[in-house]
Write a structure and sequence with these properties.
The structure is a single chain. By secondary structure, the chain is mainly β. Helix content is 0%, strand content 47%. The protein has strands spanning 20-27, 41-42, 47-51, 55-56, 63-65, 69-80, 86-91, 95-98, 107-116, 121-128, 134-143. A hairpin with a 3-residue loop joins strand 7 (86-91) and strand 8.
């Protein structure tokens, strides 16, 4: 927990409870399986690594927030073949950004602050110029505390 977070033991104060989700997902696993070329594909970010109340994980992947506010969104992925030109677009539900490759081919990263409304879902679509044999991805969504 951050140094700015104070837990109230006498009574619950939901306005100050953390709202966090950390999920991962994979595409292209299995014999003969791949992400088709030039076909936008939603990454099934459904494997819950960590989650608090205040978020839901939809069946088709991503994170749905149950309360509005400012959120930190972070996405990381690795893919093969590394020579592919892969585009990872992050939506909430409108496009808020595209992951880039600061570490070189085969990896992408993205982070931003975004104002989300109750019920918004953060999700990722991948498109590549060639079939991708593997995509491994992590999505983190965390509400920024409103310290007033």
């Amino acid at each position: 927990m951050s140094a700015n977070y104070t837990k109230h033991s006498a009574e619950k104060c939901y306005d100050h409870e953390p709202v966090v989700a950390y999920v991962n997902g994979n595409l292209g696993l299995g014999a003969g399986s791949s992400v088709p070329a030039n076909t936008p594909t939603r990454i099934p970010l459904t494997n819950i690594l960590f989650r608090t109340p205040g978020v839901e994980i939809p069946q088709d992947g991503g994170v749905t927030v149950l309360e509005g506010g400012e959120y930190f969104i972070s996405f990381n992925a690795q893919y093969t073949p590394a020579t592919a030109i892969a585009n990872f677009s992050i939506y909430v539900p409108e496009l808020i950004g595209t992951a880039t490759s600061p570490l070189g081919p085969g990896t992408v990263t993205f982070s931003t602050l975004a104002h989300l409304r109750r019920g918004d879902t953060v999700y990722v679509i991948v498109t590549s110029n060639v079939p991708l044999t593997f995509v491994g991805a992590l999505l983190k969504v965390a509400k920024v505390p409103n310290n007033h």
